[in-house]
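Lecture 7 notes. Example A: sequence first, then its structure tokens.
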Amino acid sequence: MMRPFADIEKLAAGHKNGKAALDALLDKTMPGQADIGKISDDRLLALFCQHVFSTGLNWKVIENKWPGFETVFHGFNPNMLAMLPDEAYEAMLSDTRIVRHGAKIMSVRDNAIWFVELAREHGSASMFFANWPPSDQIGLLELMKKKGSRLGGNIGAYSLRHAGKDGFILSRDVCAALVREGVVDKAPTSKRDMAAVQHAFNNWHNETGRPYTQLSRILAMSMG
């Protein structure tokens, strides 16, 4: 049986010089799901692609080149990107305005195609992500891994977090806290372990009323 989350919060407060200091570090205004749905699909696709291209690189490299990315990828308009011929993407391999990584370049096209499909079915891709319940985040991450391109694992989770969607991040410290609390016995990778993680977060959310993002941050800070 897991201990009350209040005890975990006390651990985090102890590492951050008290409850007031801990509260100051937490996001107090979490966007609602409807707000996430107001993000245009081109901006959401751009955000996802930023995370894909930043993987394995210094974020500053992508940030400095981002105006070039916006130009080369036509403002990340999903419909336009989905219709571009292979030759257009092949030409990008020699375009110095972007990071020339073939698999990541093609992931833009693949994710644009997925966004178009989501928009056709749900009105917009952003509304699809907005309406997915945080109580089944592992289901959404699994779908992003399966249907998206290079959006598995924490790339997908960080993309959603930066888009303003409530959810947890399985960072090193969060995983260590989950092991400490007996939720899993190692960093979760299997479906069984991921289900246990989701169950724990759902219980903590119901216990405290806190958003999943705050629960995740408190868990991380409880490690020091």
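Example B, a different protein, same format:
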Amino acid sequence: MSTDEIYRMAFTSGTTGNPKCVLHSFNTTLPAVHQINTDMGVTELEVQLVYLPVCLNWGYLCLLQAVVSGSRAVLLERFSAKDALELIQRERVTYIATAPASIVAMLNGPGLANYDVSSLRVVITGGASAAIETIRDYQARMPGHLIELYGMLETGFHTYTRFSDDPAKVNGTIGRVVSSMELKILDEPGREVASGEVGEIAALGPSVHLGYHANAAANAEAFTADGWFRTGDLGRVVDAAGNVEIVGRRKEIINRGGRSFSARGGGDPLHASQDHACCDGRCC
């Protein structure tokens, strides 16, 4: 069997249309795992708490992280703040991939101070934009690096913040593109926009999917002629380091009278809602 053959098929959640069947090979899946393990310093000593659904993309990739690194994964079938905190203390958990809501639940639980969570080394948040207040609250009250990540079923892990970043400068962004991937911000016709301008985030690299099964129209819309995958998310590069801010979804922007309006409210895409398509969000 070739490592380029399809071995994994998964459906998008369909929040922006009919669900689409995403095709991945070994060679589009494992690069994301190796990349994040390298950047997050994952070794055989890691103890990962996994409560993201393992039938979905990010939870599945978490298990592969453990398999590839030879580390330990502690599974929690259904998240609750109490159960998660108990497992962190008992199993000396060092690494968690999660969504902002779960972080909020642990921070707001009445018993946080009663648990020993000093083993935490890395907590990665994705699936939606974490509120700045949540990020700062975590950084003030819990140990370990809080990493903000952006990716989707179709692209794997595309950007994240880094251990070396100054939190004051990157909090609220999705970080910068990972070293094995490329990122462009495109206008509607597919031209790259100037730094700081809003456009659609596009991805190119080894973890981009092979395409949508039996859906030529979706593939034609999603991929540019030179192979870049258009994510549907609107963003802009905010600094010289290449950190990116999410500002909305392309299909939620309405053009009227030469101006762009977010369907969620507001007349400027820069102020659109910042929910974005991270793993286990819109499409995992």
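Note on Example B: The chain has seven helices and 16 strands. The longest strand covers residues 229-237.
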